[in-house]
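Lecture notes, continued. The same structure-token format from the folding unit now serves as the input rather than the output. Read the line below as a description of shape only.
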């Protein structure tokens, strides 16, 4: 089977098929709208508490940037317009909170699903995640429990929400395979940061793989093998071992001078996309940041980052790197990287067209804002 690889690496282990309890929402007419509104608000408050707990635990495990997804989930539950729409449906139609919440959220979900931009389209899954959390609380349905996983588990599920992924113990999970998801989904982003090989986009995968099946998952190529033969198992085990050996061998080079065999001194620096990457760069003895891809600060959001937001990100990198050099690449949007708030025309060959510096010169205020933020941060490094 072949899906879409969204987090590289090879995982070999036993399948754990996640069968989430289905949420069957019925439409019930209620007599006491006030009581139903209280149920709704109590469930929302309980969901916000759960999300805050996830936020705190994710900061410890993955860092502030990755934890922000759960703050954005909280903000959805504080949206006055959305909550008012649900409350009005309860009062005007006289229906139960679960039904009103589901119907209202479906309107928003369909709106996002119709958006052409892949990243924004994936946000429909975030809305589903948040609303299903509240609905489960209203209906007394427990969330998925990942606490009893054995080592080298291969998680197989119809979908994994950001909430699911953040609770997974990376030391127990060899890989993840889902039917739903994309490269820009928050679950995929978290999987990459956790270093868990992940493949998505495999239709009816929970029907094709059974609990206990031996599974090989290649998160780079998207290839998935179920109950492989001896030859296949030998090949992928060897491939995984080689990758692990290379990784371990490189770790043994940490602390050694960067000198070529003929005695030429070089500077070995790291490429990063977000400030959290600095920690790994320093762990691996990087002598500086050779490329800070600043465009990642601009991606995965609906509005351009402010000067202060950018300043804080650049400052964090410079402070962490101390007296080591940091090279920041200005906004390189275009080609395969687009943002919803900058209009980029479609071209025959976008990789050689209106992108990077050409785009910046065509959006001078965006460029100036970034340059001011970099200049302000420069005093810290």
């Amino acid at each position: 089977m072949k899906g879409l690889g969204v987090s590289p690496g090879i995982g070999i282990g036993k399948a754990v098929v996640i069968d989430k309890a289905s949420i069957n929402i019925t439409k019930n007419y209620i007599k006491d709208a006030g009581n139903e509104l209280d149920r709704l608000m109590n469930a929302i408050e309980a969901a916000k508490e759960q999300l805050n707990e996830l936020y705190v635990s994710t900061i410890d495990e993955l860092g502030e940037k990755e934890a922000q997804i759960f703050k954005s989930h909280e903000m959805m539950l504080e949206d006055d317009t959305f909550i008012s729409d649900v409350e009005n449906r309860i009062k005007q139609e006289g229906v139960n909170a679960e039904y009103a919440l589901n119907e209202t959220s479906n309107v928003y979900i369909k709106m996002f699903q119709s958006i052409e931009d892949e990243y924004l389209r994936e946000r429909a899954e975030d809305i589903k995640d948040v609303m299903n959390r509240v609905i489960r609380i209203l209906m007394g349905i427990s969330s998925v429990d990942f606490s009893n996983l054995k080592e080298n588990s291969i998680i197989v599920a119809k979908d994994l929400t950001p909430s699911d992924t953040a609770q997974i113990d990376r030391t127990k999970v060899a890989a993840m395979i889902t039917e739903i998801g994309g490269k820009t989904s928050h679950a995929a982003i978290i999987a990459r940061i956790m270093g868990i090989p992940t493949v998505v986009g495999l239709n009816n995968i929970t029907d094709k793989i059974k609990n206990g099946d031996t599974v090989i998952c290649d998160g780079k190529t998207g290839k998935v093998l179920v109950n492989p033969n001896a030859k296949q198992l030998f090949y992928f085990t060897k491939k995984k071992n080689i990758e692990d050996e290379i990784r371990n061998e490189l770790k043994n080079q940490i602390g050694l001078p960067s000198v070529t065999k003929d005695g030429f001194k070089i500077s070995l620096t790291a490429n990063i996309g977000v400030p959290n990457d600095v920690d790994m760069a320093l762990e691996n003895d990087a002598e500086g940041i050779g490329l800070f891809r600043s465009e990642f600060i601009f991606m995965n959001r609906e509005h351009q980052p402010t000067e202060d937001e950018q300043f804080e990100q650049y400052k964090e990198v410079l402070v962490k790197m101390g007296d080591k050099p940091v090279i920041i690449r200005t906004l390189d949007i275009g080609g395969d990287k687009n943002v919803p708030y900058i209009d980029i025309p479609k071209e025959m060959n976008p990789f050689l067209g209106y992108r990077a510096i050409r785009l910046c010169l065509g959006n001078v205020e965006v460029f100036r804002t970034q340059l001011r933020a970099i200049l302000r941060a420069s005093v810290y490094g």
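Point for the exam: Residues 33-62 form the longest helix (30 residues).
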